[in-house]
Write a structure and sequence with these properties.
This protein has 183 residues and is of the alpha/beta class. The chain has helices at residues 3-18, 24-38, 52-58, 74-87, 100-103, 123-130, 153-161; strands spanning 42-46, 66-71, 92-97, 111-116, 134-143, 165-172, 175-182. It is 40% helix and 27% strand. The N and C termini lie far apart (38 Å).
Length: 183
């Protein structure tokens, strides 16, 4: 097993014991596949928690790629940094501490891939803040589009009815991911 797979297993075990809301291995496989297919050079993750999905994304990235991940809680960001370092990801990873609504406007684009897994009722705001940093072909993946669809109504409604995106829901177990490509 690779370093990154070992760290992912550790986090999965910790998540079970501590009830941490990580994306989990099944949705993680879908996310990893999207990263492999997209081959992004610049990635933004909104909501790091302790680095689980950052490791899933990061282990699929080339050495010249850059992942910027935002976490609002400094203790969790510190744990995420340690986990990411332990996982031995080749790509450059920056863990930024702060409220994504304040951090995103300060970031330089463009982003090839954005993964959103933070406050469900703020997904639409995150998207609107990053939208001008996306290009045709950029992919936006949102976690919990099944179990939290009500809280994400504005986000899902916008993506699914907008002529700017081609969006699809991928059901995984009792939840799913909304995967959207900017046209």
């Amino acid at each position: 097993m690779s370093k990154s797979e070992n760290v992912l297993k550790e986090i999965e075990n910790m998540a079970k014991k501590s009830f941490l809301p990580i994306i989990g291995p099944e949705k993680g496989k879908v996310l990893a596949k999207v990263v492999r297919e997209t081959k992004p050079k610049r990635v933004l993750e909104v909501g790091t928690l302790i680095g689980y999905s950052a490791i899933i994304i990061g282990k699929e990235l080339d050495a010249d790629a850059h992942l910027i991940t935002i976490e609002i809680h400094s203790d969790e960001a510190k744990v995420a940094e340690e986990n990411i370092k332990k996982a031995g990801i080749r790509a450059k990873v920056d863990v930024l501490v702060g409220d994504a609504l304040e951090v995103i406007p300060k970031l330089e684009g463009p982003f090839d891939l954005v993964f959103i897994d933070a406050a469900k009722d703020e997904y639409f705001q995150y998207l609107k803040l990053v939208e001008d940093k996306l290009h045709s072909g950029s992919v936006v993946v949102a976690d919990n589009a099944g179990i939290f669809a009500d809280q994400m109504k504005d986000y899902l409604g916008y993506l699914r009815s907008s002529s700017m995106y081609k969006s699809r829901y991928v059901k995984v177990e009792d939840d799913g991911l909304e995967i959207s490509v900017k046209l």
